[in-house]
Design a protein that fits this description.
With 104 residues, the chain is mostly helical. It has a domain of 72 residues. It is built from five helices and no strands. Helix 1 packs across helix 3.
């Protein structure tokens, strides 16, 4: 799958609404993730990152804007604490990074 095909397919896949975590519909969540992974593992990883970000927005009482791709990845930096200003600085630099964005 080319990068353009991946972006196009990802846009189509994430239009499917994944049930939110904690709502008792885990089997449906896993089914859609499995179906996506059977098609293409990279597609599934990017779709899961989008759905995770949409779930975080929902927990915060916000909704994802239509026709936008979101993503969240987690990593741990041991023995480091970030304040809000450091997180804003990191998020701005990550948003500009081709690697972190996943797609351009």
């Amino acid at each position: 799958m080319t990068m353009d095909e991946l972006k196009s397919r990802l846009t189509d896949v994430v239009k499917q609404k994944l049930p939110l975590p904690g709502g008792g519909r885990t089997a449906e969540r896993h089914q859609l993730l499995a179906e996506t992974a059977r098609e293409d593992l990279s597609l599934a990883k990017l779709a899961e990152a989008h759905w995770d970000a949409a779930a975080i927005l929902a927990e915060a009482g916000r909704s994802a804007e239509p026709n936008m791709l979101y993503a969240v990845w987690a990593s741990e930096i041991r023995a480091t604490q970030f304040g809000w200003s450091e997180l804003q600085m990191v998020s701005r630099s990550v948003a500009k990074s081709r690697f972190a964005a996943g797609l351009e």
